[in-house]
Design goal:
Low-confidence stretches: none
Number of strands: 19
Helix content: 25-40%
Strand content: 15-25%
CATH architecture of the largest domain: 3-Layer(aba) Sandwich
CATH class of the largest domain: Alpha Beta
Largest sheet: 10 strands, mixed
Oligomer: single chain
Mean pLDDT: 91
Structural class: alpha/beta
Number of domains: 3
Shape: elongated
Radius of gyration: 25 Å
Distance between the termini: 68 Å
Length: 441
């Protein structure tokens, strides 16, 4: 933490809440960092001379005559190539036993990129996960969340994406991770020999929950450095954004603000948009792509957090457990990438759009056949073939443990079409049928 010269020290706190305190000062500015009774805090509200400070580690034990000193700076992160391969806490301090990073101080939470300086996204980011690359292809500069129940293995998926994604740099923002999850990421990255392209900012359940508010800004400030200064393709992974929103709610309630839906702050939409809108494709080639996990409370997709997220992001990826194969899959019915049309069939093979549509349509027919079966209706031969197809489609393409390139995904789809269906049942253009049909019957 850096300080300005000749700082004035205050010794009177007018009001103390669970996570905030209020004092009088005419010297403070919004987002400025301060030290309250030896604890880091940040200015979150100014009304006249009344300044509200959010104390990250909580206010327990802070007296009304506590020493308060303003630093004159917003939160800062030192950026340089030395960030690569390192693990940091919410303040940008190393937690991996390594030395402090030397570099240029960058303020957190800066403005998003002016639309006139953006380029239309057009580059594919393959992940090796067919449920993403085949059906919900991700594009550089895109912002897209994973919606998942808390018991889903979303941290495994995020680690897999980090290792497989074709990106120059991966920035992980771990929000409220258990210590075991933190060690999981650390061990996976180290064992894969991928640390040199990954930067991690971690807040665990053992750390103060309010510190979670700094993690996304730390991750995105580092991403901006690599994307703008070094012209790199950067992928930011944030998990779990629901815990970030819970921290926002704590601060909002302690400031006596009127809550909105599901006890979330009324500013939730703008708070989330401020983060997600950092996703950008620059004309020079650098880019920031954001994939975030949002866990669902009781599977409620209408909760304020996923509901607001859906209005901001360009689609969503939905994880669910497939009871037929006993594995977690990327649900093709509830997942959507709104930017996939910019790359499929253009940056991927010509048959990609038609194969994707046919595969999901046949999977939908299988769902209808399963409903008929559960309700005691007789199944046609086509229904039975659809059910067999759906099980193999889930095992070979939708399961999150599948790791193949996009051409192999397309070839596998053609093999399944040929094994279970007639050409006319698949309904793909004749020229593509003639070129790619693989009759396995």
């Amino acid at each position: 933490m850096e300080y300005k010269a000749f700082q004035k020290i205050f010794y009177k706190v007018n009001r103390i809440n669970k996570a905030t305190c209020v004092l009088q000062s005419h010297m403070a500015s919004y987002d400025e960092m301060a030290v309250v009774h030896g604890r880091l805090a940040q200015v979150v509200k100014i009304i006249g001379n009344n300044v509200t400070l959010q104390v990250f580690s909580g206010t327990d034990g802070i007296p009304t005559n506590a020493e308060v000193m303003f630093t004159g700076n917003p939160p800062l992160l030192k950026v340089s190539t030395e960030l690569a391969g390192r693990f940091f806490n919410a303040y940008g301090k190393p937690i991996d036993g390594g030395p402090e990073v030397e570099g240029e101080n960058r303020p957190l939470g800066g403005p998003t990129v002016n639309p006139t300086q953006r380029k239309r996204p057009s580059e594919l980011i393959p992940t090796g996960i067919a449920g993403i690359d085949l059906n919900n292809t991700i594009v550089t500069g895109q912002k897209i969340p994973f919606f998942a129940d808390p018991e889903q293995p979303y941290n495994q998926v995020m680690a897999d994406v980090a290792l497989r994604a074709k990106a120059d740099r991966i920035i992980l923002g771990g929000i409220g991770l258990t210590h075991d999850d933190y060690l999981f990421y650390k061990n996976v990255f180290e064992n894969a020999g991928a640390l040199d392209r990954i930067v991690s900012f971690i807040n665990t359940t053992e750390d103060p929950s309010i510190e979670r508010l700094l993690i996304p800004d730390m991750a995105l400030t580092a991403a901006e450095y690599f994307a703008i200064d070094r012209n790199e393709k950067v992928l930011v992974l944030l998990t779990d954004v629901a815990l970030y929103c819970d921290a926002l709610s704590i601060v909002s309630n302690n400031m006596d603000q009127i809550s909105s839906k599901d006890n979330m702050p009324a500013s939730l939409y703008s708070d989330l948009a401020r983060l997600y809108e950092k996703a950008v494709q620059f004309p020079q080639g650098g880019s920031i792509t954001i994939i975030a996990v949002t866990t669902l409370s009781g599977g409620d997709i209408t909760h304020a957090i996923p509901d607001n997220t859906g209005y901001i992001t360009e689609g969503q990826l939905f994880l669910r457990r497939d009871s037929e194969i006993g594995k977690t899959i990327v649900d093709p019915f509830r997942s959507l990438s709104r930017l996939k049309q910019l790359v499929i069939g253009k940056k991927t093979r010509e048959d990609h759009p038609q194969v994707m549509n046919a595969a999901v349509r046949l999977y939908s027919d299988a769902a209808n056949a399963r409903t008929k079966q559960e309700n005691g209706f007789d199944l046609s031969d086509y229904d039975k073939r659809c059910l067999r197809y759906a099980k193999e489609y889930s095992e070979k393409l939708l399961a999150i443990d599948v790791n193949i390139d996009i051409d192999k995904m397309l070839d596998t789809s053609w093999e399944l079409f040929g094994r279970y269906f007639k050409k006319e049942e698949v309904s793909i253009k004749e020229e593509l049928m003639n070129k790619y049909w693989n009759d396995k019957s």
